[in-house]
Amino acid sequence: MSDINSNIPEGELTNKWTKFKSSVPLVNPSNKRTLEVIVVGSGLAGASAAATLAEMGYKVKCFCFQDSPRRAHSIAAQGGINAAKNYQNDGDSTYRLFYDTVKGGDYRSREANVYRLAEVSANIIDQCVAQGVPLAREYGGLLDNRSFGGVQVQRTFYAAGQTGQQLLLGAYSALERQIGMGKVEMYTRHEMLEIVKIDGKARGIIARNLITGEIERHFGHAVVLGTGGYGNVFYLSTNAMGSNVTAAWKAHKSGAYFANPCYTQIHPTCIPVSGDHQSKLTLMSESLRNDGRIWVPMKKGDERRPQDIPEEERDYYLERRYPAFGNLVPRDVASRAAKERCDAGYGVGSSKLAVYLDFKANAIRYGKIEASKAGNHHPDEATCLRLGLEVIKAKYGNLFDMYAQITGENPYETPMRIYPAVHYTMGGLWVDYNLMTNVQGLYCTGEANFSDHGANRLGASALMQGLADGYFVLPYTIGAYLSKEISVKAIPTDHPAFAEAEERAVGILNKLIDVKGTKSVDHFHKRLGHIMWEKCGMARNAEGLNEAIRDIRALRADFWANVRVPGTTTELNTELEKAGRVADFIELGELMCIDALDRNESCGGHFREEYQTPEGEALRDDANYQYVAAWEFKEGVNFELHKEALNYENIKVAQRSYK
Amino acid sequence: MSGFGNAFSSSIGKKFIMGITGLFLILFLIVHCGINALIFFNDGGLTFNVGAHFMASNWLIRAGEIVLFIGLLAHIFQALRLTLQNRKARPISYTVTDGNANSKWYSRSMGLLGTLLLIFLVVHLKDFWVVSRFTGIPSTDAQGHEDLYAVMREKFQDPVRVGIYLLGIISLCYHLLHGFASAFQTLGWNHSKYNGIIKGAGIWYSIIISILFAAMPIAFHFGLIQ
Amino acid sequence: MNLTLKVWRQKDNKAKGALVDYKIAGISPDMSFLEMFDVLNEDLINKGDEPVVFDHDCREGICGMCSMFINGRPHGPKDLVTTCQLHMRSFKDGDTIVVEPWRAAAFPVVKDLTVDRSAFDRVIAAGGFISVNTGNAQDANNLPIPKLNADAAFEAAACIGCGACVATCKNASAMLFVSAKISQLALLPQGQPERYRRVQSMVAQMDAEGFGNCTNTGACEAECPKGISLENIARMNRDYASAKFVSEETM
Fold first, then answer.
1. Where are the domains of chain A?
2. Which ipTM was obtained for this model?
3. Range C3-111 classified under CATH 3.20.20.140
4. Chains B, C: CB pairs < 8 Å
5. With an 8 Å Cβ cutoff, are B108 and C73 in contact?
6. Is the pLDDT of residue B1 over 50?
């Protein structure tokens, strides 16, 4: 079935990476100094790759659109990072992490990649601790772990609710160290607009200096994209306002395949939408599900305050449906279950699009322990609750504060209201085992690629993958390519390929300004988001997807006829930046719907209403769809499907069950 | 001082000088206030004049006086340098600032308070220090000591002078309220177990010193002591 | 809600800026401050004007990009929040709100409310790291760290680099930012080998960037959206003194 080669090394699964590392061609230090690598993006995947490549001796240029590499959206990851350390002695192992991840991804990820990810996961924790990342510790001075969804061991390392921030600051400091030594040239407030290809190989990028509007040409022997996910195609998501698909999309339009675009993760625990003005959604970390129980009233349209609804009139639907995993089922399962309850009329809050996340029971449990520690063996409930809330505060204080800030409600007194929201995109640029796209010399790491999470990502795995790619995988695999490039001298940027790419980029910018229409960029972005959420969101069907494709095409025509971009191309122009990104999102949105329509099965984050079990669970079709859908861009926004078959030799493919 | 590099020219180094000289001046104030408080024996200045004589004649104290002036000048000079530098750090100021929302007015006004203090100091030195060191104290007391006490009594009959002194002491009080704890912070003496003590000591010190100093002109002016 | 905004408009780094008045209507108390600006910008675009340029990204209080000086305070009237987490329920109908950019010589205005904070990056590049190349680490649990220290390091590391400390300091001093990084690494055993080099090189870079000096007013701590403590500044000063007067290494 495959018509693309994923270059997975031969041999036993457990030995592939070790063998690869010991047999990959090396580049000698003096040659490294003349080899230039461009890294676009400075999040976990980009910053760690840029820093590590520079440490190895390569000449690195790193680009980000923010004012500092420290602001990339990896910073917002809250809950934690998985690693198969087995510090808790609960039976964890590399194989288990590998197995959980493949199963969590609903058997739509590549075995060899995931196994490698699980293998290097332990090194990440070591590296980060060595950098001074202050991960949570116990009184004995050793690292603490918590549980996350979809697994039955405690392997998640964390730093309160700011794990992403601390890991990113670690990678950022490593990057700044290299910048200080002059080994990385950092370009902040720069946006990549085109890939430059010479003789079929990626040889550089065209970037726009966002302050001056100047268009710049940059050469690299190889180009690495670590540019994050495309969740903002939905307009409302937990992504940062600036998160965009442009770099990946331009690469796609230059020939790189885009894989599994329809796999989007809808995170179950976000703060519900409060009104039309809303510009983004805020996540409440999955770690809250360790101690929060999710419920809705048993009675439809129950208007009572949650604290007035007695225990026997509450439906703890996750515990009811999935007794083995309870509130810690994977994200896709939890999200769909919430949608199912709300659609059935049991939703709470003014919008009725929310469910309760209640900490009281566990607070009381903790309070009992605390009281007991203090010598009070028969505490009353009020004492337990008071002491327990202190424990909850210590664990999740910043998240509770954030909730109070946004909603104006006190979550220590009343249960949180939560609802699913777009959070992560498992799809992305297709890459082989080496993280190289099908364009020679063009690499893709982190959320921007498609490789490790299959159809659904488990909690605390995004940070793991970003850092695995950047610190431990790409720096090795890129050597295989660069070792063949040592004789290539830096290509001057007056090469016609640069001029041509620049012309394309400038052409689009001018076109956007020249429309001089009547509607703002946000207007189109909101409309796109609405189409995507309604028809390509948590549940999809063929009819809706066909409509969506039609609507998006009409939206694209409307956009290019009526968008208004004030200002010029030669200044700091945030509307122009947004317009370029939204133009790409519109094209991507269409591809997502095409991909969702093509995949006549339900798996992970992709749920087609036509394909479900009698209990409403996702129904896969392994006979026909156990493949990666890698789309090739064709002239005039058309797409051609290529398939990479997924073979499972070390895992028995089964119906995913969390019951 | 090559071994120390730019230890004192860096931003932190300059603040060290402020902190060290500040603490030194704080110590001096205790001595100054202690000697002056001898007037409250209310013995027509006999005890006080003994103290004043000791301060004026002891060679160690005289040497200390030189150090004191160097410290004072360093404090002033460094403050000027810092202020100029700080001005440069924000060339365009805000249209609206709400400093009271996040800090005490006197913490933000150390320069102003210091300047007021300096003006007061000029008056004060002219009144007493110049008299005792250079122009000479005109009379002696019953024990034959120079009667500085009498000079004080006479000077503080003037309500304007008393007013100036009280203003100076108020400036001093606020300057100390910030400066005492601030010096400890600058020198890095911050410790969760002792911070409360330092803060409390700073407040009590500032208030007690200021009340004692203020009591002197008031007591003389209103004839509360002989 | 109806509001009057006085917003700093400045075309670019060289142009002279000024406060410009805008009337804005129909603001919901549930909007965030930046969503209120979204409404303003949508109005401006629809009228054919240029929108106000301001920095923002994550809108959940962690990236540190948003940076508005609102009615005389960085990030506005509420404690422990960034501008993006400030909601309009903190204001009243009919209020006049003055919005200015961070002001400091080391943070030059780029456009409107956007400033250049790359000075912070350069301070970090000067020494805000532990020199450990990828692959050189020992097992993470080989180095037990007392919880007290780990927690204190974490609290210092919570800094988001927004620059509110500089913005609010009467002297535009960056001591809170710099000391937070120095403290984080000074509190951890991994940070010890470079502890005294780090404090010297980072302070030197901080001075070179043109930040002012610390007067210990405590405004930075009061305005820090992450509650970074002044204790860090004391720790930095202590380390600086040790570096200059105790350590035998000269820099």
1. 1-74+165-263+426-453+474-642, 267-422
2. 0.98
3. no
4. 149
5. no
6. no
**C251 pLDDT above the threshold of 80:** no
Q: Which chains touch A (3 or more CB pairs under 8 A)?
A: C
Task: Answer with the residue of higher pLDDT: B9 or C7.
Answer: C7
Other CB atoms within a 10 A radius of the CB of residue B122 amount to 10
pLDDT of residue A657: 82
Could you tell me the pTM of the whole model?
0.96
Identical topology for domains A1-74+165-263+426-453+474-642 and A267-422: no
Q: Which residues of C122-132 are buried (b: 16+ CB within 10 A; e: fewer)?
A: bbbbbbbbbbb
Homologous superfamily assigned to C118-246? Alpha-helical ferredoxin (1.10.1060.10)
Fold that domain A267-422 belongs to in CATH: Flavocytochrome C3; Chain A, domain 1 (3.90.700)
Any CB–CB contact under 8 A between C124 and chain A? yes
Tens of pLDDT, residue by residue over B104-144, are: 999 999 999 999 999 999 999 999 999 988 898 999 999 99
Predicted pLDDT at B3 = 66
What's the whole-number mean pLDDT along residues A71-80? 94
Tell me: the pLDDT tens digits for B24-83? 999 999 999 999 999 999 999 999 999 999 998 899 999 999 999 999 999 999 999 999
Fold of A1-74+165-263+426-453+474-642: FAD/NAD(P)-binding domain (3.50.50)
Whose CA is closest to C122, among C202, C211, C213? C202
- Which residues are registered as beta bridge partners of A204? A196, A219
Provide the CATH number for the domain formed by B9-90+106-221 in this structure: 1.20.1300.10
- Helix ranges (H only) for C57-146 are 118-125
Whether chains A and B touch (3+ CB pairs under 8 A) is answered by no
**What residue type is assigned to position C95 of the chain?**
D
Catalytic residue among A110, A203, A217, A331: A331
Contacts of C160 in chain A (CB under 8 A): 75, 165
Closest CA relative to residue A531, chosen from A577, A481, A596, A479: A596
Q: Which of A287, A342, A283 is nearest to A317 (CA)?
A: A342
